[in-house]
Amino acid sequence: MQLDIDRLIAYFGGVNALAEALKEHDPENAASTAAIYKWRTRGSLPLAQLQKLTALAESQGRPLDLNAFLQQQNTLEKQTMPQNNRVIIFDTTLRDGEQSPGAAMTKEEKIRVARQLEKLGVDVIEAGFAAASPGDFEAVNEIAKTLTRATVCSLARAIERDIRAAGEAVKPAKNRRIHTFIATSPIHMEHKLKMKPKQVIEAAVKAVKIAKEYTDDVEFSCEDALRSEIDFLAEVCGAVIAAGATTINIPDTVGYSIPHRTEAFFSELIAKTPGGDKVVWSAHCHNDLGLAVANSLAALRGGARQVECTVNGLGERAGNASIEEIVMALKVRHDVFGFETGIDPTQIVSASKLVSTITGYPVQPNKAIVGANAFAHESGIHQDGVLKHRETYEIMSAESVGWAANRLTLGKLSGRNAFKTKLADLGIDLGSEEALNAAFARFKELADKKREIFDEDLHALVSDEMVHLSHDHYKFVSQKITTETGEQPAAEVVFTANGSEHRAIATGSGPVDAIFKAIESVAKSGAVLQLYSVNAVTEGTESQGETSVRLARGSRIVNGQGADTDVLAATAKAYLSALSKLEFGGERMKAQGDI
């Protein structure tokens, strides 16, 4: 039999506390923190040290029963591997992620993201909220026609019109799901729904039954579940299970819960719900307190077997649980959780960069897994350790999540067929020969400026070209920027508005300010600039600059993106792109709630 060394050390308060206690108990023969770490690494400790621990415990007035720390003992709260260890990864980047201010995507952009998510190995892709607008319906429907492996899902309120729209939208999918929801917390039922608990149960059951007309795969969500009364929640969940729901989602809608309570809540709810053992339980956690990933992992320990997440943690307010963090936590700490997913981790960075490019939401450098600094070591001690043995300061390799997998490349001698083949590998389908020819011409222009074209360059180039080929109100033509130290910068920008060419000139406090003022002298949009950012698409001084502009007018917020090796040209493109969305972007229906 073998001692559980981790549990034994934890009994004394952890490594540092144990080292201090041993030092106080026997200063001359105390074990160091380094020695205690070695015990944990080896999974054993010398007999003499074990005797010292026994003596230490006695001196503290709590005799040590070593039988309780034998790994075979049932009395020990040791980690056991779950029998049902497959976790379903449900990605809602295209629905909940799109609720980030200004992050709305076009149909073509959604299809590109969906293809990458399928390549990543996501089990269920929530493609949108089909009833929100004709454009949303069309995007969900097109994704349903495009994907071949992943389950395509549409969200719907517990309203017949929403559910039927969702059912029709996902109908072409090989694997399809309808995800319907209604609020269950007292505060939501009273102040938002203005419904009695009995009415909520009736609406939930009716919604599931309508959804079953379109598919056997029906997910039901209790909005604001973790602030709901657990007995009422068990009653609602039992009723929808009886009506045919196959997945029950328990969202932390406002990011209020904390991990140990989340685990206990799931465990108790599953036990109390009639038929709770016949469905898949799911967690959907928001990040308002920075605990979305921790709460999702806690839910798995409590009995959930599906987690709902987004690429880069994108989403409303502080966002959602990050798919990359959940997946790698389960993979790296398999010894703790014992769960498996169907995700290919080498596709994580590609998915992150694509979503960042399309939505205009840059990834912060210190973001776990996908941030530029995630595998960078500045400290000399860290650098020395990593050079000698990577595991000293890295718990996973950069290559394992795809950082080195995108080094390709095309160059100026690459032909049209090689370009087309590479786009297909990246999941990009431009839809027509005209679009392909235009993108290839842009590629050749870029190849004259850059010696190597990386995957990220192609995503940025295609995003920029799709804007150019779209029916945008504003399109960039050219510009001339004059800037000199001690002189006020000036910008002359040529662009079209509804097909008519305009030449605008303005000065500003800097070249970017001058560009924006020049465009506004014609557009007169009345918009307020909320955000302007510039990011290098790849390494090196030849890199394309990818710019994001966020504009607000009244309640509307939009993002515009532009890419060019000339960051000032990219800046003008991004501003014009945002203006087009502001002036002519379709209005979307707001759901009565958010899970």
Short note summarizing the structure:
The protein has 595 residues and is α/β, with parallel strands linked by helices. The protein has helices at 5-11, 15-25, 33-42, 47-59, 107-120, 134-146, 160-170, 186-193, 197-211, 230-243, 259-272, 292-301, 323-332, 334-337, 348-359, 380-388, 416-425, 433-449, 455-469, 511-523, 567-584, and strands spanning 88-91, 124-128, 151-157, 176-183, 218-223, 247-252, 280-285, 306-309, 474-482, 490-497, 500-507, 528-536, 545-553, 556-564.
Descriptive key words:
595 residues; alpha/beta; 4 domains; 21 helices; eight-stranded parallel barrel; TIM Barrel
In terms of topology, how is this protein built?
Blueprint: H1 5-11, H2 15-25, H3 33-42, H4 47-59, E1 88-91, H5 107-120, E2 124-128, H6 134-146, E3 151-157, H7 160-170, E4 176-183, H8 186-193, H9 197-211, E5 218-223, H10 230-243, E6 247-252, H11 259-272, E7 280-285, H12 292-301, E8 306-309, H13 323-332, H14 334-337, H15 348-359, H16 380-388, H17 416-425, H18 433-449, H19 455-469, E9 474-482, E10 490-497, E11 500-507, H20 511-523, E12 528-536, E13 545-553, E14 556-564, H21 567-584
Parallel strand pairs: 1-2, 1-8, 2-3, 3-4, 4-5, 5-6, 6-7, 7-8
Antiparallel strand pairs: 9-10, 10-11, 12-13, 13-14
Structure notes:
- The chain has 595 residues and is α/β, with parallel strands linked by helices.
- It has 4 domains: 5-71, no CATH class; 88-336, TIM Barrel, CATH 3.20.20; 380-462, no CATH class; 474-584, Double Stranded RNA Binding Domain, CATH 3.30.160.
- It contains 21 helices and 14 strands.
- The strands form 3 sheets. An 8-stranded parallel barrel has the order 1-2-3-4-5-6-7-8, surrounded by 7 helices. It has a 3-stranded antiparallel sheet with strand order 9-10-11. The chain has a 3-stranded antiparallel sheet with strand order 12-13-14.
- The two termini are 48 Å apart.
- Residues 72-81 and 381-390 have low confidence and may be disordered.
- Homodimer.
- This is 2-isopropylmalate synthase.
- Residues 87-349 form the Pyruvate carboxyltransferase domain.
